[in-house]
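User: I'm new to structure prediction. If I give you an amino acid sequence, what do you actually give back? Let's try with this one:
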Amino acid sequence: MTPGIRPLIAGNWKMNTLVREAVDLAKAVVAGAGSVKAELLVCPPFPYVAGLAGMLAGSTVAVGAQDCHAKEKGAHTGDVAAAMLKDCGASYVILGHSERRADHGETDAMVKAKAMAALAAGLTPIICVGETLAQREAGQALEVVHGQIAGSLPEGFVAAGGVVAYEPVWAIGTGKVPSEEDIAAVHAAMRAQVGGTTRLLYGGSMKPSNAEAILALPNVDGGLIGGAALVAADFLGVAKAAG
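Assistant: Good question. You get back a string of structure tokens that encode the predicted 3D arrangement of the chain. For your 243 residues, that looks like this:
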């Protein structure tokens, strides 16, 4: 953890849950959030953002989205503008996740443009960075992460409270986790690059059994949680490990 920074535990639900499941999961998270000191955030699929934001209004759990378009509006069938998400009650948006970068060919420049749109709409971007296994084995992890941060963070990002999430691609949903030394090294490099006030999250197979050790590392200010976020008890278990 970084002294003076409140940890953020964000749940990325990805393309999971139907309406009833989403409602039940959100209710269970809120019900167990009372003893959690960390800031809690759930990021459901687009169709549920407005409904859950309304349901969770006044609670200690915020609602975010998983992506937005770089344009304010226009002929972009199937896309969602940052202002629409804000209007639906979202406060955060995840951008540049490795699954978006891989499945949709998103470049650092595209992520940066989306982050600019998010900031303009009053959303807090959570920008994801991370190396592939081949890049890690080639000793390029720090170089890759540095380049992604340099290319993806727009001007004003740090001042606006933007968040950076380190998610090694090879650890997402695989059960594999980098060593604590490797996580600490990447987070130290990110801290040197973005400064002392930006929240730096770790993501990649974080769960209650390893959360306490990871969250105790220097410069790890929370987690971006995938699979464990779909089980309220697991998500809350990670959150409670944050202090």
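You can read the tokens as a compact description of the fold. Here is one thing that stands out. The chain has ten helices and eight strands.
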